[in-house]
Amino acid sequence: MDVIEVIRAKRDGHRLTPEQIDWVIDAYTRGEVAEEQMSALAMAIFLRGMDRAEVSRWTEAMLASGERLDFTGLDRPTTDKHSTGGVGDKITLPLTPTVAACGGAVPQLSGRGLGHTGGTLDKLESIPGWRASLSTAEMRRVLEETGGVICAAGAGLAPADRKLYALRDVTGTVESIPLIAASIMSKKLAEGTGALVLDVKVGSGAFMKDVASARELARTMVDIGTDHGVRTVALLTDMSTPLGRRVGNALEVAEAVEVLSGAGPADVVGLTVALAREMLAAAGLTPGRGGVKDPAEALRDGSALAAWKDLVRAQGGDPEAPLPEAAERRVVLAPATGTLTRLDAYQVGLAAWRLGAGRARKEDAVSFGAGVTLHAKPGERVAAGEPLFTLHADEAARFDRAAQALEGSFDIGDDARHEPRPLVIDRIA
Ligand code: URA
User: Fold this and answer.
1) At 355, which helix (H) or strand (E)?
2) What is the CATH number of the domain that holds 345?
3) Residue 155's pLDDT is what?
4) Ligand 1 atom 7 nearest Cα
């Protein structure tokens, strides 16, 4: 096989053959295809696209580059969720124990945050003692004992994607729908779940800024899952404004615990319940039958909270220990009285990042206590001179740049001008 032929074929708009795809992914992973050649191919794919058969094969080849976990033989069906990432998106934290409490098994491999969106592992690592790195045997044990496990993906899972993602990051080829879909799905299929629910975010705080691109990404991922025998459903959900009232690692853990305790913000509760119901349905579990509980009930009756504590303890964490708090706080006051008609997710995410909640390079450490508390959400009344945001940081020097990120991030106006957006925009199966 000749790599230049493969690059030319895609450059000229032809479909890649299964043999070409298998060969190029394997040869690239082994270092036989050079970085500059793969970067030319990634750009050709970015510009020309791939059809369903090509994307499916590309995903299969990346999956085949590493190990595939196998959770068959558990006494309950496996079901997982993947979110394309957003601001204040702590849903995995209440969702995993909720689904576990309802009768599902959730093998969740998560990542760390990069840029303005947070990572689930960074959030959980703010819990004293909690460990993200587990061996495959430990993962299975935690899953068997608690019905859920949230941990870091080992280096053996889809190594081709690890290498290709790093290359795309520096060659302007991240924002390609087939490449994003194959990247996400190769990792999710490697994790060995039987059912998968995708939370595809749309809006300023998300990868996909408009509904049409989000729908295309969702469709592509659902097709890949289906082609690989995994029952896959996607919800398109709003990310024009942050989820919940807290953005930042330990701040979000505290909010997740509120939700698990039967309280918490309506949007976080609503999305947790909607995704949990989809995960149960995709796994063939029906609330009310065979001891399967409805997720809203599990949040109300304390069983989801009990599952959370088991899950945290099983990975070395202390669910009762106080969470880290930032050393410094600054309050930003509302400049006018009225209804908050807009609050921009991206700008709030950027502020939290500037406060130290996120990282600029993979090797940076995050500040667990840093972030933003929102005192009002769109649709709520605010009064001039009352707190609008509280900023949390370990160093007061970070406040000015974070406050700048929030300038122009919100509008205060008349009630009549505010049209609430639905949280779930569409469902793709
Ligand atoms: N997340 C991934 O895992 N891969 C992408 O390509 C984009 C987002």
Assistant:
1) helix 345-355
2) 3.90.1170.30
3) 84
4) 180
- Pocket probe for ligand 1: among 184, 189, 213, 217, the residue whose CB has the most ligand atoms within 8 Å is 184
Residue ranges around ligand 1 (CB below 6 Å):
165, 174, 179-180, 183-184
Mutation probe of ligand 1 site: the residue of 157, 174, 185, 213 with most atoms within 8 A of C-beta: 174
Same domain, 145 and 199: yes
Catalytic residue ranges: 82, 161, 168, 183, 187
Q: Are residues 143 and 27 in the same domain?
A: no
- Centre of ligand 1 to C-alpha 94, Å, is 23
What is the structure's pLDDT at 417?
A: 66
**Which residue has the CA at smallest separation from atom 2 of ligand 1?**
184
Residues 361 and 289 in one domain: no
Say if 65 falls within a structural domain: no
183 CA closest ligand 1 atom index: 4
Higher pLDDT, 118 or 133: 133
Task: Calculate how far, in angstroms, residue 163's C-alpha sits from the geometric centre of ligand 1.
Answer: 12
Residue partners of 190: CB distance under 8 A and separation at least 6: 63, 66, 67, 68, 69, 153, 157, 158
CATH number at residue 11: 1.20.970.10
Kindly state whether residues 389 and 279 are assigned to the same domain.
Answer: no
d(CA 24, CA 43): 15
Q: What is the pLDDT of residues 328-377, one digit of tens each?
A: 999 999 999 999 999 999 999 999 999 999 987 778 889 999 999 999 99
Indicate whether 208 belongs to any domain: yes
In the predicted model, what is the mean pLDDT of the chain? 95
In a domain, 285, yes or no: yes
Predicted pLDDT at 20: 98
What's at 287, amino acid-wise? Answer: P
Which tens digit of pLDDT belongs to each residue from 245-261?
Answer: 999 999 999 999 999 99
Tell whether the model's pLDDT for residue 169 goes beyond 90: no
- What is the tally of structural domains in the chain? 3
151 and 272, same domain (yes or no): yes
Are 293 and 303 within 8 A, CB to CB? Answer: yes
| pLDDT confidence of residue 359 | 86
Gap between the Cα atoms of 64 and 66, Å rounded? 5
Domain assignment of residue 220, given as a range: 80-314
Tens of pLDDT, residues 256-296:
999 999 999 999 999 999 999 999 999 999 999 988 999 99
Residues 111, 113, 117, 120: is their CA dihedral positive or negative?
A: positive
